[in-house]
Amino acid sequence: MIADSMDKAASFMATVDWLDVMRTGASVITAYVAYVALQNWRRQDKAKREAEFLDALIEATHAFIVDMAKPVTMVEMARIGMRSHSEDWGTEDEAGAVAHGAIAYINARGEQDSKRLFDALNEARATVIRLRSLGTKGQVFAFDDYVACYQAIVNLAWQFDRMEAFAGMIGSSTRNWRNPDVRSSLDKILTITPDELQGHLTSGNVAVLTFAQATYRALYRR
Asked: How far apart are CA 221 and CA 183, in angstroms?
């Protein structure tokens, strides 16, 4: 009986095409190696694209901060002009004196200073557009903790919008300053100060850099 089983096993072994078995095994191994290589390539390609995005975001943020220096300085000069005109209203409360000083400044030189500020902002327009575009693009990558970074980008770009509103207000000397809505708009514009603008720009820059550094570290650990 044992001899019979051995004969059957030998017969089976003889009928097996070991070359085909080896070929099949080699094909399976080749497919597995190719799959692993493809997955590694995809991970490397994704990491490369993410790193390139972070590089572009850092560069765009830096360019935006640099370009904002001139408009912020012009806002500061305009505020100085408003304060100089408010000295004539010393008997009134401070807020009222500042408002009257702003109106006197706008009537005296607001139009020309507005044009200069708009010119400076137009020079920086390309950088704010790129920063906003990258902020939107970053959402596609689904980075961890990107929400804080995106909010920082939105806040940075908002400072550009606020300075545009400031320029628009000081350039409108023909407004009816007795109109409550016009005065309300003026009061909102008067909350924009160079120190406050610079504070937003600095905190936004720090938030973007902090996010980029943490994300770089995560990429390198993969």
From this structure: 56
For residues 125 and 160, what is the distance between their CA atoms, to the nearest angstrom? 9
**Interatomic CA distance for residues 99 and 96, integer angstroms:** 5
Nearest to 103 by CA among 11, 190, 222: 190
Examine the pLDDT at 1 and tell me if it is beyond 70: no
Within 10 angstroms of residue 8's Cβ, the number of other Cβ atoms is: 10
Question: Does residue 67 contact residue 103 with C-beta atoms inside 8 Å?
Answer: no
- The pLDDT, as a whole number, for residue 35 is 38
Token pair recorded at residue 55? 């590089």
> Is residue 5 pLDDT above 50, yes or no?
yes
The 10s digit of each residue's pLDDT in 150-175 is: 999 999 999 999 999 999 999 988 88
CA distance 80 to 76: 6
**Residue 144 — very low, low, confident or very high, per pLDDT cuts 50/70/90?**
confident
- Chain segment 40-56, per-residue pLDDT in tens: 444 556 778 888 999 99
Give the Cα separation of 106 and 194 in Å (integer).
18
155: CB partners within 8 A, 6+ apart: 200, 203, 204
CA distance 153 to 192: 19
- Report in angstroms the alpha-carbon separations of 64 from 16, 38, 60, 189: 72, 39, 6, 22
Name the helix (H) or strand (E) containing 150: helix 146-170
* Dist CA 67 CA 200 (whole Å): 15
